[in-house]
Amino acid sequence: MNLIFRMLYVLVRSLFCERMRGGNFASEFALSVLPNDIDINLHMNNGRYLTICDLNRVDIFARSGLLKAMFRRNWIPVIAEHTMSYKKPLGLFARYRVRTEVTHWDEKYFYMKHVFSKGERIMAEGTSKGCVYARGVGVVKPVDAFAAVEMDNSK
Q1: Residue 1 pLDDT > 60, yes or no?
Q2: Which is it for strands 75-86 and 110-118: parallel, antiparallel or unpaired?
Q3: Which domains does the chain have, with CATH numbers?
Q4: Please, which residues have CB within 8 angstroms of residue 67's CB and are 6 or more apart in sequence?
Q5: E-strand spans in 64-120?
Q6: 66-73 and 142-153 helices, crossing angle to 10°
Q7: CB-hemisphere CA count at 13 Å for 99?
Q8: What is residue 47's three-state secondary structure?
Q9: Tens digit of pLDDT for each residue in 27-82?
Q10: What's residue 2's pLDDT?
């Protein structure tokens, strides 16, 4: 399955999943390593982990209401920093779970933790720092992003 199909799956799935409220923003998927995910060593390419994290973030955006708020205001999500530690490789067709959780935010950024696991074993884990950006204006403070979501929900 190409990434566009995974993205469509995430967006459709998010329509049927519980909405995220009250600061508890986490997304979890069960996936498999597909032939287009692997590198020359026949395990998941290190860049693919970062792309899979993007899918989790889109799920969080959609289920929290932030995706709708961003579209309405022409905002875009931006990742400022991402780190990943690879502990064990995920081979071709391996089943795994990936969980992304927003751990906290400050005046500018949202901070997230990403965990890839196979059974009880952690295969890779990382962190990222991202923001919402308004073209021509700059970074949207998380508190303002939350206010936009609340405004849209009250309509």
Answers
A1: no
A2: unpaired
A3: 3-153 (3.10.129.10)
A4: 58, 61
A5: 75-86, 95-105, 110-118
A6: 100
A7: 11
A8: helix
A9: 999 999 999 999 999 999 999 999 999 999 999 999 999 999 999 999 999 999 99
A10: 67
Instruction: Please state, in angstroms and as integers, the Cα–Cα distance from residue 75 to each residue in 25, 67, 94, 145, following that order.
Output: 19, 9, 36, 10
Radius of gyration over every alpha carbon of the chain, rounded to an integer in angstroms: 16
> Any residues with CB less than 8 A from the CB of 112 and at least 6 apart, and which?
53, 57, 100, 101, 102, 103, 127, 128, 129, 130
CA 65, chain centre distance (Å): 14
Q: To which residue do tokens 């400050």 refer?
A: 106
pTM given for the model:
0.90
CA end-to-end distance (rounded Å), the chain: 37
* Residue 25, SS3 per DSSP: coil
How, if at all, do strands 110-118 and 95-105 pair?
antiparallel
Secondary structure class of 142 (helix, strand, coil): helix
4 contacts: CB under 8 Å, gap ≥ 6: none
